[in-house]
């Protein structure tokens, strides 16, 4: 009798699973604990996320455009707390950036793992196009680039039964070919798979296999307000692909999400957690002071379920900065950063615009010395002496004490693009010493505040408040500025603000750099 009961229960369970199209692995996560998820999981300029699970480890990478080093690698074991462990492209030979700006260079990358090797594939727009690099340790070193033939942006890889497939979007059509994963040689002609559901810019394709179906996830609508995720599936990797009747599977360009401060949701990558549960990482931006965002597109996380054979993001609901989700363990709440950099070691979070001129940077005993080469952040200036990191929180404070050793200009920058950036600096000209706040916005170059200093040295601090910045000179209020002037809507580009010390002309010392959220 007991065994009959057991069989009946088993059959009922199986029927329930088939009815809702879920897998036993997914059930494991549903039975997890309810936790508070804090989004974005990687804040500040962190667009176009791609993710891979290897054993108990998760890795996320992002696009970096004209910055060097390029493509940060973040590691996590709990999906909530992510630590940057390196950069994929940390040698100029991997990352030519000739004429690159905040709309060119490294576009959306994909990270995958196959048979002991990590692969990163991306497009260097303006410098030879699609390529991939490989590594056995995701923290690096990564190989020299293997250049690829198939055009289009946002390439991705899919491995199955000894074969390696590449998808990208030449001629606004998601196209698949087989490649040799060692040489990059194209092994089959490009096969057009899908053009999406009619939104502009079908891009960001990824292929997954789930319960005998190949799923093709893409983004449409462009990376602004109309951004959305759509999906199609096929029994054969080469197609034909049928679109999900419930597309888009995720967007905030909707009646229910239009008031959210989180917008532009799209460009995602599906993955399974260690417990078998399904998730998606994707990009979105947070608005401050109206329809403006200046921190860039950031990396968000949401749960995914399978219903009637199609993926559903967050139960079809909009996402929020704090969300209740089910996980197999409670992650630690993320801690606000409290950093004092003495520059004895330059961590992987520090970047330059294009390639740095190494001899213009020295650090000793907690003091950074920068030598200017005349380059600032305006068009035509592509190698400024500057150490830049992402502003990762809307509210934070950062600063340094700067001393001009010679005539020249040095201080702090808040840089969005060459069309929109701000400098808070000390200027030394003979016996005249000044503190200045200057903003560049397209053709406007405006010195907002100028005061005379008793010496060529000052403590410069910036307090960020979401919709504006306040500037403190030697601890006293000096000026304020709307952050919308540095927003992507005003300054353009695909990036987000980066901050840090710079020296345009002359030579200057910096007593470290503080960054507190
Ligand atoms: C990226 C594309 C996109 O390559 O914007 O939002 C482009 N998505 O997929 C630049 O980030």
Describe this structure in words.
It is built from 3 helices and 42 strands. It is mostly beta strands and 517 residues long. Strands 26, 28, 29, 32, 37, 38, 39, 41 and 42 form a 9-stranded antiparallel β-sheet that branches. Strands 30, 31, 33, 34, 35, 36 and 40 form a 7-stranded antiparallel β-sheet that branches. A hairpin with a 7-residue loop joins strand 17 and strand 18. It is globular and about 75 Å long. The protein starts with a helix and ends with a strand. The model is unreliable at 1-28 (pLDDT under 50). It binds (Z)-L-Arabinonhydroximo-1,4-lactone. The site of (Z)-L-Arabinonhydroximo-1,4-lactone has 15 residues, from strand 16 and strand 21.
What brief labels describe this structure?
3 helices, binds (Z)-L-Arabinonhydroximo-1,4-lactone, mainly beta, 6% helix, nine-stranded antiparallel sheet, 517 residues
């Amino acid at each position: 009798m007991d065994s009959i009961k057991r069989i009946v229960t088993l059959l009922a369970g199986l029927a329930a699973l088939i009815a809702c199209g879920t897998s036993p692995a997914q059930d494991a996560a549903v039975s997890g604990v309810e936790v508070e998820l804090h989004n974005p999981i990687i804040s500040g300029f962190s667009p176009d996320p791609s993710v891979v699970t290897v054993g108990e480890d998760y890795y996320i990478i992002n696009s970096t455009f004209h910055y060097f080093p390029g493509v940060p690698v973040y590691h996590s074991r709990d999906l909530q707390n992510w630590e940057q462990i390196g950069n994929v492209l940390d040698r100029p030979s991997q990352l030519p950036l000739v004429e690159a700006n905040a709309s060119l260079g490294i576009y959306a990358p994909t990270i995958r793992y196959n048979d002991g090797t990590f692969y990163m594939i991306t497009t260097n727009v303006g410098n030879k196009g699609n390529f991939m690099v490989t590594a056995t340790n995701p923290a690096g070193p990564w190989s020299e680039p293997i250049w690829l033939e198939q055009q289009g942006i946002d390439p991705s890889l899919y491995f199955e039964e000894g074969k390696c497939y590449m998808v990208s979007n030449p001629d606004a059509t998601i196209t698949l070919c087989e490649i040799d994963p060692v040489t990059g040689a194209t092994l089959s002609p490009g096969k057009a798979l899908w053009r999406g559901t009619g939104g502009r810019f079908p891009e960001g394709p990824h292929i997954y296999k789930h319960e005998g179906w190949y799923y093709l996830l893409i983004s449409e609508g462009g990376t602004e307000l109309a951004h959305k995720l759509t999906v199609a599936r096929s029994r054969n990797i080469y197609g034909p692909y049928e679109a999900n009747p419930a597309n888009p599977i995720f967007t905030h360009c909707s009646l229910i999400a239009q008031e959210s401060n989180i917008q532009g949701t799209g460009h995602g990558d599906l993955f399974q957690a260690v417990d078998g549960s399904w998730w998606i990482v994707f990009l979105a931006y947070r608005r401050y002071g109206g329809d403006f965002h200046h921190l860039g597109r950031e990396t968000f996380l949401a749960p995914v379920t399978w219903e009637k054979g199609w993926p559903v993001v967050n139960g079809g609901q909009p996402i929020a900065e704090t969300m209740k989700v089910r996980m197999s363990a409670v992650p630690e709440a993320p801690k606000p950063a409290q950093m004092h950099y003495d520059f004895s070691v330059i961590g992987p979070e520090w970047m330059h615009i294009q390639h740095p001129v190494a001899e213009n940077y020295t650090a000793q005993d907690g003091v950074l010395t920068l030598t200017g080469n005349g380059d600032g952040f305006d068009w035509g200036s592509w190698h400024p002496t500057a150490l830049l990191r992402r502003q990762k929180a809307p509210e934070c404070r950062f600063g340094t004490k700067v001393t001009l050793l010679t005539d020249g200009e040095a201080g702090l920058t808040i840089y969005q693009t060459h069309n929109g950036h701000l400098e808070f600096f000390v200027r030394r000209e003979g016996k005249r010493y000044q503190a200045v706040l200057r903003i560049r916005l397209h053709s406007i170059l405006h010195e907002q505040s100028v005061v005379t200093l008793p010496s060529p040295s000052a403590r410069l601090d910036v307090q960020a408040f979401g919709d504006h910045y306040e500037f403190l000179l030697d601890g006293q209020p000096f000026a304020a500025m709307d952050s919308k002037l540095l927003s992507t809507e005003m300054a353009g580009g695909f990036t987000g603000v980066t901050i840090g010390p710079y020296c345009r002309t002359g030579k200057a010392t910096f007593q470290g750099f503080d960054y507190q959220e």
